Amino acid sequence: ATKAGLLDDAMSSSMGNWSYLLYGGQKLSILSQSSLSRFQEIAKYSQFYAKSIVCDYIYLMELTGEYKDYFSELDGAVCSLDDVQAEAESNNIHMVAYHIKVTNILRAYWKGDYLGAEESGPSNSVSNLDHASPLSSILHCFFLALVSFHLYRTLGNDERLSKGREMMRQMEKWVKNSKAVFGTKCLLLKAEHAASIGGKRDIVKKYYSDAIRTAQDQGNIHELALAHELLGNYYHATEGSAHDSSNCFERACVFYKQWGATAVVERIFHEHSLDIASVTNVELQMGKSKRLGEHED
Questions:
Q1: Which of 7, 117, 266, 296 has the most C-beta neighbours closer than 10 Å?
Q2: What is the pLDDT of residues 177-231, one digit of tens each?
Q3: Which 3 state secondary structure label does DSSP give 23?
Q4: What is the secondary structure of 260-272 as a DSSP string?
Q5: Which helix (H) or strand (E) holds 110?
Q6: Is 74 left (phi over 0), alpha (psi -120 to 50) or beta?
């Protein structure tokens, strides 16, 4: 029994570390290389563990655009995340059901499906979750706030603005505990909030610029990419020049590519009709600046 308990602890710890790497900005190509064999080992050891983490593997697959059949490793009639979620809910495994819902927010968000992201999310307030892991709570708070602010600007509804503010205030509390984890996220939410309420242009731009600088200083490539994309959206929706917005989107593509999020790069190319030669040139210029020790903004 003691040995089995130690194995369970080791497996649980390994799974948790992998998930933190996935959502914390580890290069997706590294995680994807052995993802199927890793998942097969987990499924062989415990079907429960495999079902509790399969949403993370589907998330990785959709970001990279590299299809892998994870569901064939699961027993029974489980063929989708909906099946896993229904099973978790019927067995009162609340943490797993909640994490799947949160992952669905992210999956929809990166596809540009903001309404789908809003509909996918848990109804609970982030500050009142009894069955949430810290990682799930952070992701829920950050991405649902981004979705709420975006939809408020495009479709209206004061409830969305209120929800975004609630999430932002929670992030402001968390950032006091760890600027490394929450610094960029908090700045981006402040930027999105300021943009949503028609804040002064120089203030909004400073929030975005500070977020970009913070993400770069901390080496968070995924947040660096996102910050450039959000700034590009701001320029595109306001009086910013087409050159400014395009430059932000091009830089975002370079950083998303470095992260390994091929599907996100393809979405931005399609949404903003980017030119591959221009993106390549930006990538070369950024590489040259990095070699010269210049700071990206």
A1: 117
A2: 999 899 999 999 999 999 999 999 999 999 999 999 999 999 999 999 999 999 9
A3: helix
A4: T-HHHHHHHHHHH
A5: helix 94-110
A6: beta
The DSSP output letter for 183 is H
Query: Which tokens is 58 given?
Result: 């589907």
Contacts of 218 (CB under 8 A, 6+ apart): 180, 183, 184
Torsion angle in degrees (nearest 10) through CA of 109, 223, 145, 149: -80
40 token code pair: 């097969």
Q: How far apart are CA 68 and CA 70, in angstroms?
A: 6
Q: What distance in Å separates the CA atoms of residue 52 and residue 99, rounded to the nearest whole number?
A: 9
Unique residue bearing structure tokens 């983490």: 53
Smallest CA-to-CA distance from 102 within 150, 134, 149, 63 is with 134
Helix (H), strand (E) at residue 133: none
